[in-house]
Amino acid sequence: MKKKVLIISYYWPPSGGPGVQRWLKFVKYLPEFHIDPIVYIPEAPNYPLVDESLVSEIPNNVTVLKYPIKEPYKLAGLFSKKSSKTISKGIIPDYKKQSFIEKVMLYIRGNFFIPDARIGWVKPSVVYLSKYILENNIDTIITTGPPHSLHLIGLQLKKDLGVEWLADFRDPWTTIGYHKQLKLTKASKEKHKVLEKKVLNTASQIIVTSFTTKKEFQEITSQPIEVITNGYDYETTTAFELDSKFSIAHIGSLLSKRNPDVLWSVLSDLRKENDDFLKDFQLNFIGAVSVDVLESIRNNDLSDCVNEVGYVSHKEAIACQKKSQVLLLIEIDSEDTKCIIPGKLFEYMVSNRPIMAIGPNGSDVEKIIKETNTGVYFNYDDYESLKTTILEHYKAFKNKSLQSHPIGLQKYSRKQLTQQLVALIKK
């Protein structure tokens, strides 16, 4: 007999973006390990990104429960549709460039909705799920955040029903970079910390996606913490011809703080110094790009080589990765972001294309890239190293020999990661 597990998530197809991939793939493989996943999601949510192609990936036999949710971003859209949509995607403009409406919206979001804008879904979800859990003899639940308000559903269900509760953190809570942009009052910051501590000390098992987050949480709780990273799935895609241009591609949102001036400076100098490079080079952006990044690119005279594609479906994103000559991964240069391992990293790693990653020194991304031999990692001041590497890649491109040489990727496959999860569920 299969063990039933209730998974409480905000992101689920047709939601697009990286947040949906992790649990969609776990749900795909759990039945192979005699686990029957039941997914609980909001009805008619206000997803910032939509990817209808992901709906076809939902297993036919999975039970999906839905309950209505009131979304404050819909109300905010009455005042400024553009600002509410941009902020809900996580693209927060630099403070000096924020409009009055944006500043007000960020203050309200940060101080009136703690821990986040989905807090209003907690109480009705607890009532609905309490009845369902008892009627269906479910003894294990999993909450995944962000939004971290979903962990408060788990907290109350654990308290009321005594169920086993696994709290999955795809990102950290109080140390996540954007907290500093939410204009939190001292009281609001303290409330976040209190809730975070309560969740971490009540969950039966904590799951995190990075080694740095595990270390951070170990300072707050003695509850067991397991690292289960994101990963890659075997995508059935046709063979693609590589770009004829020497393309460097960034897939995913490029936020204001992810703006490596050193890279734009290197590329600008290479175009000035090398006529062939000037003719061959192309910079592809697949996903939302902040105006601050585009302005920096314009200031470095690179606008004419930019191909801004915008958001595409996950399937199209995979195709873009496989066609690109070089894949670019950028993280904010901060202590707070050392723990961030973007889900796309693992798809990058199996694309057979070399990765150039830029971020803070000593990050988890740096560790994984070096361990798997899938690319080169740089800090924000590595001008000479960046320039040398790009020239080496360009020379290999001209010789038609540019590719990556990965090692040890199997442990990051979605099926193998699901096996790790099953061990925790059956513990």
UniProtKB/TrEMBL annotation:
Keywords: Transferase. The keyword Transferase applies. The keyword Transferase applies. Residues 104-235 form the Glycosyltransferase subfamily 4-like N-terminal domain. InterPro entries: Glyco_trans_4-like_N. Gene3D superfamilies: Glycogen Phosphorylase B. It holds the Pfam family Glyco_transf_4. It comes from the Bacteria. This is Glycosyltransferase family 4 protein. It comes from Flavivirga amylovorans. The lineage of its organism: Bacteria, Pseudomonadati, Bacteroidota, Flavobacteriia, Flavobacteriales.
